[in-house]
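User: Thanks for the earlier help. One more: Sel1 repeat family protein. Can you show the sequence and predicted structure together?

Assistant: Of course, both are below.
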Amino acid sequence: MAASPAPVEGWAVWARPLGWLALIAFGPLALLPTPLSLLARVWIVLLILGAWTILVAAFIGALAGAATPVTVWLELHLRAWVARFAPDPEALWLHWARQAHRMDQAHRCLDRAVRLGGAEALFQEGLVFLEGGFGAGGQATAVARLRQAAERGHPEAGFRLAEALRTGHGVLRDPAQAAAWYQRAAAAGCGAAAAWLARAHAEGDGVAQDGEQARRWAEAADRLRPHPPLSRSLLRHDAAPEDALIRLGAQVADRVGRAAERVVARRAGRWALGLGTVVLACLALGTAATLFWAGSSGLFHLPLIMLGPPALLLAWQAWRLRREGPRGGRDRLREAAEGGDPEACYRLGLAYRQGSARLPKDDLSAAVWFRRAAEAGHREAMAALGEAYLGGHGVMRDPREAARWAEASRREPASP
């Protein structure tokens, strides 16, 4: 009887590691009633100082548009701590990558899973490269990842590798190796590979025509039914489930970001922010000075200590902004395309196909975005994808696929 898979969601995953984390953080407080109470008080000061530093760093990073916000850094390390206690860390990281609603978070979770070296993680990363999820030039890397996963016994990875070797997609064509990988995948339980071998031996497609072999593989394919559909990249825009709370949070964050951009874009807004910063700084210094002279609760030094990290963070951020100069604005088109908007996907594909000083010409990325829009029913994207297949721009030249998309474009009503 096969063992049940390890849980990857719910309190069963989080309870134990969070319990240990709480014990580490608050356990030393049990020393307060003992002669070692001084150590407990020092620990309390360190906890307050650490929390204050994190809050200030998060606030400054949000204002300055840090590439990796403190909250994201904390989240990643918290997940790494939880994964240490999981029975199957690879499955847990892949689950988090699949559930992620931000592309950068999904990439980080997938990278952590791949570092563990499991077959499923390597296969999933190969799919991402295959579908252009990491940008242009990923076909050869996709084949390499699929080969690593197949060598570790992953059935569908062997089938995908065989397909690449048979068609020359991302690797030199090698029908002999392709047939060998089809057989390995079928022997590992891939029904699609067994079905292909049955048809190939019956028709002599890439292998010797052999009725006995065709019958044997057809029986194997029947035993493996029902054949599950081929996997799709877990970083596709339609892979993350709908979640009302996450969607509402994203909408609120987007509106706040737009409002902040409008404020910063105006001179009066920048002056108001600067004046507010000076006022808050004066209030903080006044409060610190008052507590210092009054010696409140014997912790007169604590406010001054707490002002140290914000001052250092502000100085460092000011130096970095002065060194880097003004930042570029947000790429609204790419954000909309990654959110699944068909029109935005189509326009981003056009931008990659035409090329510009800001966005170099990239036929592979153009084909990827055309396909996303076409799969969502965008008529012009279907026609553009058909042209790409007809001319071999960013994809393998395939007149049949070109005709299929051209026909789909003619049947689809005009996009609004």
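User: Great, one quick takeaway?

Assistant: The first helix runs from residue 11 to 26.
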